[in-house]
Write a structure and sequence with these properties.
alpha/beta; seven-stranded antiparallel beta sheet; Hypothetical Protein Yjia, Chain: A,domain 2; chaperone; GTP-binding protein
């Protein structure tokens, strides 16, 4: 009996009114949607009523696209396992991937912790993307003042810019710059140019080193988020780094919004480290040809953390 591969999950987040439901409805109608299960907090918050065919099970509706949409009642883990079990029993249509749409005030780090570290879910699903929808009209002004917005932007592997056609090119560029300050490693895409899930495949994957780390600098902006990017010219001592990073997360995990590091280690070659808050993905050892040089590149995004001291701590313990 062959073991089934884990079901890929796309986590879709974004602040209130950013337009994530509008984009999701569009993506579900696109030919690339395939068989998708959508988990939402409340049907009343999701603008997919015009797509409904009818109720096929408690808290579950069938969409014209052939996808199913289920309401989350209780714990996220239970909702995921329930929809997988019901599909295996033939109670609802089978599906190839799961999209989880969060509320506008959700903290992605808690959801990521559930997806990455629950021992049951670990063999059932795998995180493919964290897609954060950013409002071009309000993102750089009203939304950026909210701590939830900063956390959602920092957690993203893909940033979808909505309402880009409603703002000037200068305002859109200002948002792009603000997003890059908060999360310099995320792929930025205009939602209008991404009608389906296929358009985000292969970009911003949290497990792939396709992002630009070449920002050896330190930034702070009006959101309260600070970004520190470091480049180490020689191979990294893996043991020293892990000891240092573990101590950092233990002491300041609540202040860390994002950690993303492409390390060239002395022991095992290129390793990708990716995490949000206290949650770290399992380190991924990459093929040696992935790294174009011997450098290690590290990005830290935090709030209320002295980045100068962070840099000094790294240089003293790990190296310069």
């Amino acid at each position: 009996m062959t073991r089934q591969a884990p079901i890929p999950i796309i986590l879709l987040t974004g602040f209130l009114g950013a337009g994530k439901t509008t984009w999701l409805s569009r993506a579900l109608r696109h030919e690339s949607a395939g068989r998708t299960a959508v988990l939402v907090n409340e049907f009343g918050e999701v603008g997919i009523d015009h797509l409904l065919v009818g109720t096929i099970a408690p808290d579950t509706v069938l969409l014209n696209s052939g996808c199913i949409c289920c309401q989350i009642r209780g714990e996220l883990k239970d909702a995921i396992l329930d929809v997988i079990t019901r599909a295996k029993r033939g109670e609802i249509p089978t599906f190839e991937k799961i999209v989880i749409e969060t509320t506008g005030l959700a903290d992605p780090s808690q959801i990521l912790s559930t997806l990455m570290f629950d021992p049951v879910l670990h063999n059932q699903v795998s995180l493919q993307h964290v897609v954060t929808v950013a409002d071009a009209q309000n993102g750089a002004t009203i939304h950026s003042a909210q701590p939830e917005w900063v956390g959602q932007i920092a957690a993203a592997s893909v940033l979808l810019l909505t309402k880009a056609d409603l703002v000037s090119s200068s305002k859109l560029q200002a948002l792009r710059m603000r997003l890059a300050l908060v999360n310099p490693t995320a792929e930025q895409l205009v939602a209008q140019d991404c009608p389906g899930f296929r358009d985000i495949d292969g970009t911003g994957d949290s497990h792939l080193p396709t992002v630009n780390f070449d920002r050896s600098s330190q930034h702070q902006d009006g959101t309260g988020a600070q970004t520190l990017s470091l480049t180490l010219e020689r191979p990294m001592d893996w043991v020293k780094f892990i000891v240092w990073l573990s101590a950092l997360i233990h002491r300041h995990g609540a202040k860390l919004l994002r950690v993303k590091c492409l390390l060239n280690t002395e022991e095992t070659g290129p390793v990708l480290i990716d995490g949000v808050g206290h949650t770290l993905h399992h380190p991924r050892h990459l093929d040696s040809e992935v790294a174009s040089d011997e450098k290690s590149r590290l990005v830290f995004i935090a709030r209320d953390l002295d980045m100068t001291q962070l840099r000094l701590s790294f240089e003293k313990f790990v190296g310069t």
